[in-house]
Amino acid sequence: MGFKCGIVGLPNVGKSTLFNALTRTAAAQAANFPFCTIEPNVGEVAVPDARLAKLAGIAGSKEIIPARLTFVDIAGLVKGASKGEGLGNQFLANIREVDAVAHVVRCFENDDVTHVEGRVDPLVDAEIIETELMLADLESVDKRLEGLTRKIKGGDKEAIAQDRLLRLAREALEEGRPARTIEVAEDDRRAWRLLQLLTAKPVLYVCNVEEDAAAEGNAWSARVAEMAAAQGAGSVVISAAIEEEIAQLDDAERAEFLEEMGLEEPGLDRLIRAGYDLLGLQTYFTVGPKETRAWTIRKGTTAPRAAGVIHTDFERGFIRSETIAYDDYVACGGEAGARDKGKLRAEGKTYVVQDGDVLNFLFNT
Description:
Elements (H helix, E strand, L loop, with lengths): L3 E5 L6 H9 L17 E6 L4 H9 L3 E3 L2 E6 L14 H9 L3 E8 L14 H32 L3 H18 L14 H6 L8 E7 L9 H13 L2 E5 L1 H8 L3 H11 L5 H12 L2 E7 L3 E8 L4 H8 L1 H5 L1 E7 L1 H6 L3 H6 L4 E3 L10 E6 L2
């Protein structure tokens, strides 16, 4: 099960620098001019989780395999992108393919790094991007509504349902509200997701600050945090320049550098966890002598669906899951101890997997 988070923003706000640090590569060019990223770069990153090492230590696992998120570096959008300005629609299409948006905003002054709008104001930057995405959505909605006319006249139930959702979206967009502000009924959620509206995707604002503000943020990042809270979005403070430096260091050097900078952990760890939370994801574990592995599922996933993340046969032939809560696994010193103390539970098809569960699936082949 793959989850993609797209990195968007105006040119020269630090997107590609951030992506390079995230993926520990120099795959994305980081140059001081707009549109240096021509194709969307894709990189997978591990989700930091201290529980993995603890579980692996108890089980004597030979290998640790963390959960992963995919980040997509999407070229800088500009005012007019929805009408084809800059690299326009090519990149709006890339955004449609991601599950969530990490919106990088520039919260630092630097005369050596040109701002495409000639000034630094992250709130206005965010508004430009949001407006372009809403305009693109509005154009898409109008085209789809027009295309449904014949099917609706023929009584096509799916088309009628689509028409209703698209009209809800159009009403919000015309009022200047992104599609994610719309309350969608549970029965409509799958159809709603299939519309692939740009502004329906959850947003995380990434405040790129100067090095001295990496720990606490600054006045600009505080204003972005207020805006994000008002929108029901997330926000995180990070210094892309620092993260790029950290990415080049080994573990020992990294720890020393973080201490010197007054940071408890790399900002990227916070960013990755924030992206994980933004998508409503959680982790369960499989643990054994061969490997300890983290598996990514959406919150609210039942045991059979969770089993299906490993292999579809596990879901199809699901019988039950042997389940141990993470804290119980640690306190009991592993599976045998948990079984002896009655902390290993047999859970059936309706069980909703909890974050940190250690699971062993029994299934028919």
